[in-house]
Amino acid sequence: MSRFLLVLVILIPLFGFSQKLKSPSEFLSYELGTQFSRHHEVLDYFQYVAKSQPNRVKLEQYGMTNERRPLLLAFVSAAENLSNLEDIRQEHLNATTGNGDTDKAIVWLSYNVHGNESVSTEASMKTIYELLTTKSTYLENTVVVIDPCLNPDGRDRYTNWYNQYKNVPYQVDPNSREHHEGWWSGRSNHYMFDLNRDWAWLTQVESQLRLKVFNKWLPHVHVDFHEQGVNNPYYFAPAAEPYHEVITPFQRQFQETIGKNHAKYFDANGWFYFTKEVFDLFYPSYGDTYPTYNGAIGMTYEQGGSGRAGLGVITKIGDTLTLKDRIAHHLTTGLSTVEVAANNVEKLNDEFEKFYKNRNFKYKSYLLNGNMDNIKALEELLAKHNIDFGRANNGSVKGFRYRSGTSGSMKTSENSLVVSTNQPKGTLVKVLFEPNAKLSDSLTYDITAWSLPYAYGLDAVASTTLINSSDASAASAAPVKLQDAYAHITDWNSMQDARFLAALIKNGVRVRTAYHPFSIEGKTFERGSLIITKADNEKLENFLDIVSKIAKKYSKSITSTDTGFVDMGKDFGSAYVQMIERPKVAVLSGDPTSTLRFGEVWHFFEQQLHYPLTVIDADYFDRVDMNNYNIVVLPSGGYGQFFNEKRLKKLKSWVAKGGKIVAMGGAIGAIDGENGFGIKQLKKEKDSATSKPEAHENIQRERMKEAITGAIFKVKVDNTHPLGYGYGREYYTLKLGSTAFEYLKKGNVAYFEENTKPVSGFAGSKAQKSIGKTLVFGVEEHGKGQVIYMVDNPLFRGFWENGKLFFANALFMVN
């Protein structure tokens, strides 16, 4: 063979390899960073890469979004690793029980959880390309999991909007239309939920599907890629205080290690960055904290830009920030993260195994009693997190009593729920159940309280001893086949009951509710109990079959009776037993409502209550005939002058004729005042002019005295009022701010008394004083209708389970 042919034979494989994998720019036919790639184009590139590199890339579709867009993971590693991927995974998970023996690091890179923080997905394409080409040595002892887009619906909403409105090629003037998204921005998912606040609560389908795969891997390192304001430099680890106390010294130290490696590259390029500010590690439902509480080095990386930046924009100091710049920064930190992991495999594996050893927390077990529907709802959440739980035996347990805030004891039964920290997910259990998380710094990025016993309205004890428990597997519901009777009765005290009622009404069943407790057939029923009579439904075909089917679906226990003559209370023909009116619900959307607050209402109706609603946008609100609806929900927001004199007059007239308003949070202040309804906002007392001037650097902390950063308070409930049906005399509310309203003349259903110290979370000293003797939930009568005020948000992020019945009462019970 000639020397020329020999050289050619040698070069052909090398040349073939270099041509084998196209860069994103080559594949997409436009230079990366000069266009926003639509989600399907990103998937096309990842599928192309996997097809071109089948021995080093494996794709897994883990589900679909609400708008039917695929959710995709790419597993990237050296060929030998990928061929043994399942063995690597199993061996890695063995470390959670102290039996791990692996020499690989698992790094998970999550992009674009906020849809309009759109550089992330662009960077993911460049990252997988570089890992397979210039940085392939990192893959020899590392498995990299890439989720190119956690929020495809939000991302495509943004990219489609931007591609419609941008100038050609683009305009850097920040005043241009392409830098100003509308009300429905791309940040959130289909239901306008912030997916970066949903890791722990799992209210959204994207979160639920992602966590199934995440729990199969439990990576050593997890990065959540974000963007922040246009004028901010890049942010990376280490995080700011407060760090939750469960975070280990190694997790803290390794954040520092990674941050210094990033800084090396940023310094070399002259790029600005900051660390240890703003973004803390406390609230458990973030893409950095949730992985951290599961043993990972969880981190947020924040690039300046977001939806305002577009393809390029002028910053306040006159520089031009381009999408290409933003891609370069996220690419650098992504590759740097994998590099550090690859160089510290042994340490990562050792410390991961240590994390899952018994952490010896103060409280070994949490025991919970209460409404069985709420207990089952909590069990469903725990199961999604792979948290073990069981049921107690008859007896009693001593420990910290949540409701009293002191030590005490509580009786146990076979219905008592037991959750222990003596399990692989013990750290996560401690974080989610602890009565009051220890806060090292009051300056936090999010809420400071979330304890699940309060969120689910359950009586609880935190015990320093390990409580024995048995399997909590629920028996399947017995078939419900109702027989002919005068009436069929069931209780009312949970969201499961509200779903049952909603389904009955949707199927044409007429239902009454009791305004007084009563006894019949040897049983006592509280206010709000549902009464389904034969006479009310005699025209409904297959009436008993319909009710039986729905009762079985929602596991409802039904008591049938052949008489309307009660043993105690009011008979079924009394004026105190009223027909529940079929709700015809309209919800205001668009400016001036908050997208997130509107989304909570929208999701509540469609995915939790399963009841129809009509969405009316503010743009055409004036043209809508309000007489088509009997309920109007006003989500919280910044209403400004939206409810002018003319609109308020229209609204008041509609209520006076029998309409019902549910005003939430910021909407309340928009309908009060001289021309509005009777509620009055509490005016804050101004500080004395003689108070000591505060140093500039202390102003932010001084303001915290007037703030409430998502704290839990115990408030009183008037459960004789229809809005309070199904509750006890106390309720634990999650308060998100210090705005307060005076008591109503009557109709105060949930309210603060004088003692306003939070049971969990941070509330400034001045804020605590300002909310004394103020309203939480109340009802004002106006003509034949009502205005229902919800100062606090019972639907916040969809996870405050015990508040949802108040909203259901507003729909069904208040008449």
Task: Please tell me about this protein's structure.
The structure is a single chain. The longest helix has 21 residues, at 249-269. The N and C termini lie far apart (96 Å). The chain has 815 residues and is of the alpha/beta class. The protein contains 22 helices and 35 strands. Residues 1-18 have low confidence and may be disordered. The protein folds into four domains: 3-355, Aminopeptidase (3-Layer(aba) Sandwich); 365-471, no CATH class; 491-579, no CATH class; 585-683 and 700-812, Class I glutamine amidotransferase (GATase) domain (Rossmann fold, 3-Layer(aba) Sandwich). The strands form eight sheets. Strands 28-27-29-30-35-34-33-31-32 form a nine-stranded mixed sheet, sandwiched between helices.
